[in-house]
Amino acid sequence: MRKILGALRRADERFSMIGPGDKIAVGLSGGKDSMLLLYALHLYQKYAKKAYDLLAVTVDLGFGNYATGVMQEYADGLGVPLHILKTNISEIVFDIRKEKNPCSLCAKMRKGAFYEKAKELACTKAAFAHHGDDVIQTLLMSLMYEGRMNTFSPKSYLSRREITLVRPFVFLRERDIVSAVGRLHIPIAKNPCPIDFSTKREQAKEIVAYLNSLYPGAADNMLGAVKTTETYNLWNKNWNF
């Protein structure tokens, strides 16, 4: 866990993610990333020279086969309160709206439900487990589907929700998370979504992997380009063409 906690600490220090007295709600999906994040923030409570409270929120989309018991047992073992929010999001997205591309609406509704619960629990911060590879994939999807240079921020204040979102794993790569989860035998709750692994993000992940196979180190360089703002050399929006 030394590498995981070291990367978390660097992100915290660079972006001032966690402060004394914070109450942090971790978005716990049951996947490897969020399960490790909960454990890492639990350990960080002991080593960071700042006192903060920690809890987890799981949004049950209503598919009926979500292994929330796995997450409950895991959170109980850490001594972290887990709040499971049952919703009918899957019915709205797949049955009522019959969305052809359901991921966007599902994510919007899932995050909305999560933030509402976090505010109900008087949380000052929300923590998601997005990592460095997610940064690259989001940038690539933005270029391909939106025609703009954009990716998510390590820390964002959501004024409409009155809560600050932090992503403590932005300096980690997915391979680091996979390795840590395997060594620590952290349990995983399978994603019940019927289109899991067939999304645009999975396609972007495959593209990045292919580029990295052609040009070893390409993914590291892409992430480095995002982190090192001093080297940006894009067209200035004030230029007239």
UniProtKB/TrEMBL annotation:
One GO process term, biological-process aspect: tRNA processing
tRNA(Ile)-lysidine/2-thiocytidine synthase N-terminal domain ranges (all copies): 23-186
CDD domains: TtcA-like
SUPFAM superfamilies, sorted: Adenine nucleotide alpha hydrolases-like
Alphabetized UniProt keyword annotations: Transferase
Family matches, as Pfam families: ATP_bind_3
GO molecular function, one term: transferase activity
PANTHER family, alphabetized: AMINOTRAN_5 DOMAIN-CONTAINING PROTEIN, SULFURTRANSFERASE-RELATED
Name of the featured protein: PP-loop family protein
